[in-house]
C-alpha cells in the first residue's frame, strides 16, 4: 500500500476584521469539539480551488469569489511521517448570503476577532495562532 499525505483545501473567511471558525462536531474522528477552519480533503483529480468551492458549499452553503492562496501547514500532530497538508485560502467575498451550518461537520459557527481566536483553548492546531496573526495584521 502506497502511503501518501492527504491534501486539504481550507478557508480563512474574513469579514470586518474577524475570522469565521467552526467548532467541529463531537463525533468527528480528528479534533472533535475543537475550533477549526472550514474546508476538507482534495479529491483525486480535483484542483485545490475546486475542492475549496465544493467544501464551502457543502459545509456552510456559500460560494467563494476570488479566493487568494495564503499559506499551507503540515499537520505533524496527526502523522510525522506523511503529515496531512492544509492549503489555506483567504476568502473575503462570497455568494449565497451569510455562512450557516449546512451539514454535520460542525456543531457551531462563530466570528472571532484575532484576540478572541488566539485565546481559544481548543483550537484544532496550535499553529493556527501564527496563521491568524499573519492573516489579521
Automatic annotation (TrEMBL):
Signal peptide residue numbers: none
Instruction: Provide the GO MF annotations for this entry.
Output: 8-oxo-7,8-dihydrodeoxyguanosine triphosphate pyrophosphatase activity; 8-oxo-7,8-dihydroguanosine triphosphate pyrophosphatase activity; 8-oxo-dGDP phosphatase activity; 8-oxo-GDP phosphatase activity; metal ion binding
Q: Which residue stretches, if any, does this entry annotate as coiled coil? A: none
The record's top EC class is: hydrolase
The record ties this protein, via PANTHER family, to: 8-OXO-DGTP DIPHOSPHATASE, NUDIX HYDROLASE FAMILY PROTEIN
- Return the InterPro entries for the record: MutT-like, NUDIX_hydrolase-like_dom_sf, NUDIX_hydrolase_dom
- The Nudix hydrolase domain is annotated at 3-136
Q: What is this protein called?
A: 8-oxo-dGTP diphosphatase
Q: Which SUPFAM superfamilies does the UniProt record give? A: Nudix
Reported cofactor(s): Mg(2+)
Return the PROSITE patterns for the record: NUDIX
Q: What is its EC number?
A: 3.6.1.55
**Which keywords does UniProt give here?**
DNA damage, DNA repair, DNA replication, Hydrolase, Magnesium, Metal-binding, Mutator protein
Q: Which family does it belong to?
A: Belongs to the Nudix hydrolase family.
Catalysed reaction equations from the record: 8-oxo-GTP + H2O = 8-oxo-GMP + diphosphate + H(+); 8-oxo-dGTP + H2O = 8-oxo-dGMP + diphosphate + H(+)
Origin: domain of life: Bacteria
Its Gene Ontology biological processes? DNA repair; DNA replication
Amino acid at each position: 500500500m502506497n502511503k501518501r499525505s492527504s491534501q486539504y483545501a481550507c478557508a480563512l473567511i474574513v469579514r470586518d476584521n474577524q475570522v469565521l471558525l467552526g467548532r467541529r462536531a463531537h463525533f468527528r474522528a480528528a479534533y472533535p469539539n475543537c475550533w477549526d477552519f472550514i474546508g476538507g480533503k482534495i479529491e483525486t483529480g480535483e484542483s485545490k480551488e475546486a475542492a475549496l468551492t465544493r467544501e464551502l458549499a457543502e459545509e456552510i452553503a456559500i460560494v467563494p469569489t476570488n479566493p487568494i492562496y495564503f499559506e499551507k501547514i503540515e499537520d505533524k500532530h496527526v502523522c510525522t511521517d506523511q503529515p496531512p497538508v492544509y492549503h489555506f485560502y483567504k476568502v473575503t467575498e462570497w455568494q449565497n448570503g451569510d455562512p450557516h451550518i449546512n451539514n454535520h461537520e460542525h456543531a457551531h459557527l462563530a466570528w472571532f476577532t484575532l484576540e478572541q481566536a488566539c485565546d481559544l483553548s481548543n483550537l484544532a492546531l496550535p499553529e493556527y495562532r501564527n496563521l491568524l496573526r499573519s492573516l489579521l495584521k
